[in-house]
Every structure is written in C-alpha cells, then in structure tokens.
Write a structure and sequence with these properties.
By secondary structure, the protein is of the alpha/beta class. It contains 27 helices and 18 strands. A six-stranded antiparallel sheet has the order 1-3-2-6-5-4. The protein has a five-stranded mixed sheet with strand order 8-10-11-13-12. Helix 2 (about 20-45) packs antiparallel against helix 3 (about 55-70) and helix 23 (about 630-640) runs parallel beside helix 24.
Length: about 725
C-alpha cells in the first residue's frame, strides 16, 4: 500500500495530554520553577554580591515556562529537545563560570548526549555532540591560556549540589517525557500498520483520490489489477485507467460522488498490461479536515458475468425440459380436463395464502433497499425484488387462467375512457423500449379521444399491456405502435379496434396457430431466447372473449407482427371523472409535503405485513396506529378521528368487512376514506368491500408507489369539500 499524503498520519497531541507521566512532568516543572525562585531568594539574601548571577536562573524560569506551554499543546518532542538543550546550557555555564574542565562535565555530557541520541532523535544527538566537543575544546584551550574567569567564592550548595540536582532532574524528566512520546508513536505506528492491513485485506481494489483526481492511497489489489507501480500510480489520475465512453462515464460518476456523496458504476478497467477487466466501482465522499476525498472499492465482475452465462444456459435447458414435459402432457389433455378444472378451482382459492407471504417478502425487501448503503447488498436485494415481481406476475397469470377455466372470473362494469387506458402504457413499458432503442408510439383516433364506455378498464389494460410488452420483447430495432380506432358505432354500443404493431422477428404461419395456447410461444427457440411463461397471449385472448371481443394476429417472419384486439362495449350513461395521475415517486413526496403528521389507522393481523405497511407510511410522515383485529380497529376508531383507514379483510375476532360496517356507524367516520388492503384480490372481493362501505381496494402484495398513490388520492378527495369519497369510488 502506498501513502502519498501526511493527512492520514494521526497526530499524538490529543492523545497524551491526559497521560499520568505528562501531568507528573508538568508538576515537576512547577516544582523546579518554585525551587529556582527560592534559590534566587536565598542567593539574594545570603550572597548579595552574587545577585548578578541570578540572570541564569531567571532565564531558566522563562525556559521552563515555554516547556510547560509546549507540553500543554501536546508538543512532546519539542519540549524534550528544549529541556535537553536547557540542561546542556546549564552545564556549559557551570563549566565556564565555576570550574572549567575539572567539573562534572565529563560525567554529565556523555550521559546527556547518549540519552538524547537514543531517545529523541539522531539529529539532536549530533547537534549536542558537536556543541559539546566545541565547548570542551574551547574550555581546555582557555584554561591552558589562562583566560578563564576567576572562580568566585561560591557556597558548596551552589557549586555542586544545585547543578548536579538540576542535571539529574532534567535527565529524569526528559526520560519520562520521551518515554510517553515513544509509547504514543509506537501505538500510532501499530494503528497505521493495522489500517494498512485492513485495506490490503479488502476483497476488492481500494483507492482514494482528491478532488483533482490524483491518487493519495491504494491497496495491493489495485496495484495487481492495474499493473502499475506505486510511482506510476502517484502521477496518474482516475480517468487514466479507462478508455472511450467509460472515461466520460467514470468522470461523471466521480463528479456525482463529490456533489452528492455516493455513486456506483460498471466500467472496464484498462491495466498497463493485459486485457481490460469488467468491474463495478462504488465511491463515497469523505471529508478530512477541510479537504474532500473519494474513497472507492472496485470489484472484478468477470466471474459474475460467466456465472450469468451459465445460469442462462441452465435456464434454457430447464425450459427445454418444460417444453418436453408439456408436449407429453398434451397427449392426455382430453382425459385430464375434469381434473384440470378442479385444480384451477383450488388454485383460485389459494390467492390469499399466496399473496400474504409475497406481500411480506416484497415489502421487507423494499424497506431493506431503502435503508442499506452497502452497494453489494443493494445489488442482492434488487435481484430479490426483481425475482419477487416476476414470481408475482407468474402467480397472477396462473390464478387468472385458473379462474377463467373454472368460470370464476368476474368482470367489473364501470365507466372509463379507453384513451386513458392507453396513456398509461408509456409509463409501464416505455423504459423497456428505450433500453432497446425502440420508438413507442400511441396513436388514438380523434373520435375516440373523449369516448366514454362501460366495462372493466383493468382487464382491458391488462390485455393491451401483454400485447405491447410482447411487441417490445420480440423487437430488436424499429418501433412499436399502439393504435385505437372505432370499428363500429351504434347508439348503445361501440366496437373498438386496438392494434399493436411491431417491426420484430415475426411469426410463421404454422406457429401462429400455437401462440394463443397456454404455456406456448411461437416455437421453443423463442422461449429460450426471449424468456416468458407463455401465458400472456393465452390469458389475453380468453379475457378478450369474456369481454365480448377477440384477438387475432397477422405476421410474417422477419417483417414484424400486428395483433388486433377488438372489443364491443356499451356506452356509459354519464361523464367519467378523470382519475388523478402521478409521476413515478411523486405520490410519496406529496404525502410528505402535504399530509405529514396526519393520523391513519392500519388494521392488520399479520405482524410482518403490518410492519411493512406501517414503515412505508411513516416514511412519508404519516402517524400510524395499528390494530391487530377488527375489534381493536373499531375501538381505536371510536376514540380517534382518523383521516384514513386501511383495513385487512381476513382477521380474527372480527373481520374487516364487519369492522368497516361498525366504523361507518360511528359519526366521526361516516365519510372517512376506508381502503381495503387485502390478499383477497379478485373482482368479487372488491365488490364485497365496496358493499360494506369501503372506498377502494388495494390487493396484496402492495407496491409502495401504488399504496402512496391510493392514500394520496383519497386524502385529497377527503380534503375537497364537494367530493364524496364513497360515491366517487363507485
């Protein structure tokens, strides 16, 4: 590991001020100052003719005061050097003015020089050694020439005891101080080595650079990956390790880190030697003092890509096995139809049991994704989230086709605008088209823009979403166009014609006969290449026929396909009120800005699902009271005027339907929005909820954005004095 800057070396000032040896040293200095004062007073009284010699003790007092100040600032090495230098001056002065070469200098000087050189620094030792040699040489020469000053009559206490005591105390105190300094330096060196070992033991490449992009620290894995030496890395910048578009993308990611604090990116690292390495880089901003740095970790994802390729190969093999098994099962289709209907009925009744744990899995995953800052963990959670949504889509498809086969699918009959259904498609699949470079066009005939009809808009949207999603999936270049035309216009009914046309791979005449069968695509190779369960078109055609329409396809291999969805619907009896629309993520922001502090009631008997819903709502500033059954929900509603109530259906002691009826009987909650949030997700379940006095129906698993949109919609309607919540829902 290389370190180019001293800012990472921790100082010792703040770590020594409370040390016992340091406090002892300061007290000893205070004692010395007091001793010098007393000594000066004694000399002044006992030897008035020696008053001129008090200049030395006064200078010593000033010197000790400076040493005291340095210790208080944690400058131990400077204090030790100054103390040693003061001792040297004292001994030298004694030699010059009191005894010449015949004093204790030959004992004190070697001890002082050796100790200073060993304990403080070689530079200080060399300086004192040079000064000592010069002083001894000068004293010997002066004594030989007879130029030394005469030794004044001096008391024995002054001549021997005081100097020896001073030098002895000086050596002891300097030793104590240097011991503290060396111990602290050793500790800091061990900490530095420990941090270096931690950085070098990281599983990826660690690096750190300043706002100018210059590297200040890195680990051995970074050296190994880039194949650059420490000297070369010290002269390079972050963008020097990338080529082409990656260089600009990495520079932009670094800018985001310094501006926003966090960024991650996938790019190919270009080492000095060898091929490029696909990596995922994550960087965070760190502020040390008044300077900002980027700390990052890079992980080699070559193995991940190889594993994904193997996983894709395994998935293809698994789908081949499924196709073979499906072909075998088709032989016994006629004999198994009765059993299949029984199975479908069973699966349809299992909706609640399937959706309840799915709500917990998806909800807890969403909460974890919102709270984690670990890039690798977030990647794992995103994969879990994608897999959960895929599993939910498969469950919904299986339940839909099962209910259709069991004749248990109930269609809604409400007023809606077909053009409004089409307007939602870009938000749902537009990003997929954009990722593939496709153009998604919505073409609505002028005579159909304001057309108001009566039917099931959710099922109409489901069919159109399946057709448009397939068009994007099987198209590699060009565009996908969704059209709405009037094919027939009568006084009471309107014949709609939806067209979904693409420029994709197309379907052969033989395969067109199979695309609407369950678990089928045009051929096995499409399943292997494009994925999918093969249920989408089967469910779409059956839904179209249940609604009085049909789906046909016209296609040629290599030229694209055009799916036509016709639908005969009655005209609505009144104007359709436009539903509020929200951009991605905006509903939660509006809740936080407009309804923070609003108190709502959540009735949920399943603890995990209750925790998920409560956490999601509290994240937007709402105050949430939780009831574990219908009895507690009614009791809380009797005590508190809630702005909105979220009600589960299947609860112990008192179910959600009966609890809602009881709450509606309470005067404060006669018009409070009550939303069913339940795993009973079918149309007949919705009708039961609305009949009990609920305003809306949210099927589980609940997507956070959908929850926020529903809560915001009904809070806005409740706030508007002219809108009746229950009437608007119906």
């Amino acid at each position: 590991m290389k370190q180019q800057s001293t800012f990472l070396r921790p100082g010792i000032d703040s770590t020594v001020r409370g040390d016992f040896s340091v406090r002892f040293f300061q007290h000893a200095i205070a004692a010395l100052v007091l001793g010098i004062v007393l000594f000066s007073v004694v000399i002044r009284v006992a030897e008035p003719d020696q008053t001129g010699r008090l200049v030395g003790p006064m200078v010593g007092m000033v010197l000790l005061a400076v040493i005291w100040w340095l210790i208080g600032r944690g400058r131990l090495q400077a204090a030790a050097n100054l103390f040693a230098g003061g001792a040297w001056l004292v001994v030298t002065s004694i030699c010059v003015f009191f005894g010449g070469v015949h004093t204790a200098i030959f004992i004190v000087y070697p001890l002082l020089i050796v100790y200073v050189g060993w304990a403080i620094s070689m530079r200080a030792a060399a300086l004192f050694a040079g000064l000592t040699v010069s002083a001894i040489t000068g004293l010997v020469l002066a004594e030989h020439l007879g130029t030394l000053p005469l030794v004044p009559p001096t008391p024995l206490l002054v001549f021997w005891v005081i100097p020896v005591l001073y030098v002895s105390v000086a050596l002891a105190l300097v030793g104590s101080l240097v011991s503290v300094y060396q111990r602290r330096v050793g500790e800091l060196e061990r900490e530095r080595q420990f941090s270096a070992e931690i950085i070098n033991s990281l599983p990826g490449m660690f690096y750190m650079f300043d706002a100018d992009g210059r590297f200040v620290r890195w680990n051995r894995r970074f050296n190994d990956a880039t194949t650059y030496t420490d000297q070369e890395l010290a002269a390079m910048k972050a963008a020097d390790f990338f080529r082409g578009d990656d260089k600009k993308r990495v520079a932009e990611a670094a800018r985001r880190v310094f501006a926003e604090g966090l960024a991650d990116i996938e790019a190919d690292l270009a080492p000095a030697k060898g091929p490029t390495i696909p990596c995922r880089f994550t960087g965070v901003r760190a502020t040390i003092g008044d300077e900002s740095f980027l700390l990052g970790v890079g992980l080699d994802i070559s193995e991940n890509r190889r594993n994904l390729a193997k996983l894709e190969e395994y998935r293809q093999h698994l789908e081949q096995m499924i196709e073979a098994r499906t072909a075998d099962l088709s032989v016994a289709k006629e004999a198994a139809e009765a059993a299949n209907r029984a199975k479908s009925t069973f699966l349809a009744t299992m909706s609640h049991e399937l959706r309840t744990p799915m709500n917990a899995i998806m909800g807890m995953t969403s909460l974890a994704m919102r709270r984690t800052m670990d890039a690798r963990l977030l990647d794992h959670l995103e994969k879990i989230d994608h897999a959960s949504h895929h599993l939910l889509a498969v469950i919904n498809s299986i339940l839909d086709i099962s209910r259709i086969e069991a004749d248990r699918l109930v269609l809604e009959q409400i007023d809606f605008t077909p053009a409004a259904v089409l307007e939602k498609l870009p938000a749902l699949i537009g990003y997929k088209a954009a990722e593939k470079g496709l153009t998604l066009e919505i073409d609505v005939a002028p005579e159909a823009e304001r057309l108001s009809l009566r039917g099931d808009p959710m099922r109409v949207g489901q069919v159109l979403l399946n057709l448009a999603d397939n068009a994007v999936k099987f198209t590699e270049r060009g565009k996908v166009v969704v059209r709405l035309r009037l094919a027939g216009d009568a006084a009471d009914h309107v014949l709609l014609r939806f067209e979904v046309e693409d420029t994709g791979i197309g379907i052969s005449e033989t395969d067109r006969k199979r695309v609407f069968a369950a678990f089928e695509q045009a051929d096995g190779s499409m399943t292997r290449k494009y994925g999918g369960s093969g249920l989408g078109l089967a469910i779409s055609r059956r839904l179209a026929r249940l609604m009085g329409g049909d789906i046909t396809v016209d296609s040629r291999p290599g030229e694209g396909s055009c799916f036509v969805f016709t639908l005969l619907l009655p005209r609505s009896t009144g104007a359709v009120a436009p539903a509020p629309t929200f951009g991605p993520g905006t509903a939660g922001d509006r809740l936080r800005n407009e309804f923070s502090g609003i108190r709502v009631l959540l009735a949920e008997d399943e603890p995990v699902n209750g925790e998920v819903a409560r956490t999601l709502l509290e994240a937007q500033g709402l105050v949430v009271d939780v009831a574990v059954d219908g009895v507690e929900a009614v009791a809380l509603a009797r005590q508190t005027p809630y702005a909105l109530i979220l009600m589960d259906i299947q609860m112990p002691n008192l179910n959600g339907v009966d609890a809602t009826r009881a709450i509606r009987a309470l005067p404060p909650h006669a018009r409070t929005p009550v939303l069913a949030m339940t795993a009973n997700a079918f149309a007949e379940d919705r009708k039961v909820c609305l009949a009990a006095g609920m305003d809306d129906h949210l099927p589980k698993p609940v997507i956070p954005d959908r929850l926020y949109e529903a809560v915001l919609t009904w809070l806005l309607r409740a706030r508007a004095p002219t809108v009746s919540g229950t009437a608007a829902a119906r």
